[in-house]
Amino acid sequence: MSMIAYFKSKPLRSALAAALALGTPAATLVATAPAVAAEGDLDRAVAALRGISTMQADFTQTDRAGNTIAGKLTLKRPGKIRFQYEEGVPLLVVSNGKSLTMVDYEVNQVQRWPISNSPLGALLDPNRDVKRYGKLVPTSNRDVVSVEVRDPKRPEYGVITLIFVRDASAPGGLQLTNWVALDSQNHRTTVRLRNHRYGMAVADRTFTYRDPRRTTRRPR
């Protein structure tokens, strides 16, 4: 059973599952008379991603039905990420650098898939060539850089649009403010970031989890 089918009867939790790989278009950033992207912006976006060693940020994610949930994101390159949801949400999403895992503590279920199989691979997979598969999307604001990443040979991996705002204090001079993703089944979710912090020490154990299927409850 797919993750989407599993959560179909639970809209909010469906949104949480979908947000691993999905998004909703940021309509306010797309111009009817789009500005011309600045020369070199794609290179700058790639440099901004590669310039993040560690990052923490508060996030909200919203599905296409308007359901919203919040939490804290921790990122450590290459390949590690943790979505710690707000209190009362019995879910955890974590990547150890090789695979992305969703843990549902309410039903004691763990689902895992390779980073490369998710649009989030554009953020996490060190082998994913963002410049090769990415293209600039015109926006209404010259200070906003939007990059759409898709592999035309692997449509099942979906599409992710990374949205940056020019900020001299951020790595590479661009701050990732949200991403917009779409899976092969056209499910969408938006993830927005705020209160970015960079360069802090983050232990690798941050990207482990308690496996609810094990009575010993040792971290994976």
CATH topology: outer membrane lipoprotein receptor (LolB), chain A
Query: Which consecutive residue ranges, at least 5 long each, have pLDDT under 50?
Result: 1-9, 21-34
Shape descriptor reads globular
Per DSSP, what share of the residues sits in E-state strands of 2 or more residues?
A: 35-45%
> What about the largest sheet?
11 strands, antiparallel
pLDDT average, as an integer? 79
Full CATH superfamily name: Lipoprotein localisation LolA/LolB/LppX
| Portion in helices | 10-25%
Major beta sheet, strand line-up:
6-5-4-3-2-1-11-10-9-8-7
- Return the CATH class: Mainly Beta
Give the end-to-end Cα distance, rounded to a whole number of Å. Answer: 23 Å
How does this structure look, described?
By secondary structure, this protein is mostly beta strands. It has one domain (11-206): Clam (outer membrane lipoprotein receptor (LolB), chain A), CATH 2.50.20. It is built from five helices and eleven strands. An eleven-stranded antiparallel β-sheet has the order 6-5-4-3-2-1-11-10-9-8-7. Strand 1 and strand 2 (68-76) form a beta hairpin. The model is unreliable at 1-9 and 21-34 (pLDDT under 50).
Task: Detail the topology: elements first, then pairings.
Elements: H1 3-6, H2 11-18, H3 41-50, E1 54-63, E2 68-76, E3 80-85, E4 91-96, E5 99-104, E6 109-114, H4 121-124, H5 130-133, E7 134-137, E8 144-150, E9 159-166, E10 174-182, E11 188-198
Antiparallel strand pairs: 1-2, 1-11, 2-3, 3-4, 4-5, 5-6, 7-8, 8-9, 9-10, 10-11
